[in-house]
Design a protein that fits this description.
single chain; 335 residues; Lipocalin; 2 domains; 5-stranded antiparallel sheet; 58% strand; globular
């Protein structure tokens, strides 16, 4: 992901034109104006947005009958249309499955500067059978690989050979805690996490102490000095962090008007109280806008909606339905 490309749930934002690029129901990418929520064009094919730079949206797609190939695309926006400018196919090792349902099997990220697209992919393979196999079978199925490839931003031409790199050690690791502390899981994107995360000059994690309920923000600076900031004393409180890790949203269940309490990760300062939406799945704050996805079941329909509200006011600005599908209802039992 380009460092200059802000992430939002299911997509990215061009910070100059204030247009969000998100994946919608049929897999295509839609451009949505942050100010109004109006659609600014669609791609004509299914793809996943990665980054935006120099007037180009960089995205990737996979080929259904070629599981080990990735196709990179550059898209430009003209007259409310998203028009392909170039595409380039990257052939990966035969064992790689770019569309595997296993979340850690394949990852692709890009960084973009004024002239070059740097695409880095990372793939992992493990034994997926039933009963534990002999050790030699398990080891034969174990593969880990990471490559970096450079492409010309203007035309997609490959620049040089792919660089094979060692598989990196994850930056976020479970923090080492004193015996009187316990980790508090938090919602990040679409999953629950327990690792620490980096925000500016600190590493942060959420904990609780054995003698007191609630959630505490534990900060550690580069010198190893720690600070604790209590966010809530509610024993059933839950937390979510924004995609960039900069804000923490804490929800205390109960009450007639449920809210999110919003805190800054680097300072622990309370910033806002916002209306809570059950089914919130991924949160991002872009300038004075907060964007989040809400999953809900409505009258036999399963729906995902991208919500945009003012920040820190929480005032609703627009909603955009990303996808919806009819829920399958079992037939009635015979009488």
């Amino acid at each position: 992901m380009s460092a200059s490309t802000p992430r939002i749930p299911g997509g990215i934002v061009d910070p100059e034109s204030k247009i969000a690029y998100v994946k919608i129901k049929d897999g295509r990418i839609a451009g949505i104006a942050l100010e109004t929520g109006k659609v600014q064009g669609h791609t004509k094919f299914a793809a996943m947005p990665l980054a935006y730079s120099e007037g180009r949206l960089i995205c990737w797609s996979h080929l259904p009958h070629r599981p080990n190939e990735v196709r990179l695309h550059a898209i430009v926006r003209q007259d409310r249309e998203l028009i392909p400018q170039w595409e380039q196919t990257l052939a990966l090792p035969e064992w790689v499955e770019v569309n595997s349902p296993e979340p850690d099997s394949f990852q692709l990220a890009v960084e973009v500067d004024e002239q070059c697209v740097t695409a880095a992919w990372e793939a992992h393979s493990r034994y997926r059978g039933g009963a534990p196999p002999p050790i030699d079978v398990e080891q034969a199925a174990m593969r880990d690989e990471r490559h970096t490839q450079h492409l010309d931003l203007k035309n997609g031409t490959l620049i040089g050979k792919a660089l094979i790199e060692p598989v990196p050690t994850p930056e976020r690791m479970p923090p080492k805690l004193r015996p009187d502390r316990r980790i508090v899981p938090y919602h990040a994107g679409t999953s629950w996490e327990t690792q620490s995360w980096r925000c500016g000059a600190i590493h942060a994690c959420l904990i609780k102490t054995v003698d007191r309920p609630g959630i505490v923000l534990l900060q550690e600076d580069a010198a190893g000095a720690e600070a604790e900031i209590r966010l809530t004393d509610h024993p059933q409180a839950t937390a979510a962090i924004t995609l960039d890790g900069g804000l923490i949203f804490v929800h205390e269940p109960g009450g007639t008007d449920p809210v999110w309490q919003v805190f800054a990760t680097e300072t622990g300062k309370h910033l806002a109280s916002l209306g809570f939406d059950p089914g919130t799945d991924g949160i991002a704050v872009i300038d004075d806008r907060i964007l989040f996805v809400v999953r809900e079941d409505i009258q036999g329909m399963r729906r995902r909606t991208l919500e945009c509200r003012g920040f820190p006011s929480g005032k609703p600005i627009w909603s955009f339905v990303l996808d919806e599908e009819t829920m399958r209802v079992p037939p009635p039992l015979p009488r």
